Each structure stands twice: as C-alpha cells, then as structure tokens.
Amino acid sequence: MPYGSGRLSLASKDVKTQPQLDYRYLDDHRDLDRLREGTKVELRLALEPSLQAVLEGRTLPKDVDINSDDAIDCWMKATASTSHHSCGTCKMGPTTDTMAVVDQYCRIHGLEGIRVVDASIMPNVIRANTNATSVMIGERVAEWI
What we know:
Blueprint: E1 7-9, E2 20-22, H1 29-46, H2 49-52, H3 69-79, H4 130-144
Antiparallel strand pairs: 1-2
C-alpha cells in the first residue's frame, strides 16, 4: 500500500469537465525508497545468467539513469505512472469526519437518495484488480436498497 496520496479537485462547475487528478507519485520518501530498492532488485535479476537467454537487453532505464540513488530517483519521478484503477476519492466515514463523503452504507453526506457505489469508497488502493471488489460493493449496497 502506498504511503502518499494524491489530490482530486474540480476543474470547473461544469459536470462535463473532467476533474484534476494530481497523483503525487513518490512525494512520500517511503514510497520513493521502496520503489528505488525494487528497481535495484529488478536490475540485478535481469543480470542473472538464466534470464540472459531470454532477454535481449535493457532498454530503460539507461545507464546514466541508474549510476546513483539520486539518478534512479530522478528517473523514477520522471517516468512513474499508473495502470491501475484509481480509488479512494470518496472517503467513507461518519458525518463528524470532515473529509468523509459517504457513510457506511455509501450514502452521500448531506444529500438524500444518492449513493456512491464504486471503487472510490475504498479506503486504500487494493493489491488486486479493483473489478471484483467493486462488484462486491455494488452487490452489498444493492441488498441494502
């Protein structure tokens, strides 16, 4: 689970305008440290003789990108992206939590007759595809409705 978190903000009052997503990748030094160490492990594994027969060579990172921890950090910050589905943008919690958007039944605080029933209520990025968990959330809330 990542230590850092991003920020979601509205770009416009127009509901058709996409919100601004600032993922803030690697802003937390613990995430940066962990990814750097993982990158070093991957680079060492690629040098294993048993893998040399199937690998044609390293494309990225370039040698200059890995000649120091600072260089690795710079390369990672410049190239980090995601392929996972974002989640956790509508925090679940009691009305006393000013950051909470929905209650434990996925009802939006301050509104009636509307719920958020998707991956956005997940408190953290899960370590699996979000589809099955989102289906489970939908089925559970459907039972309450």
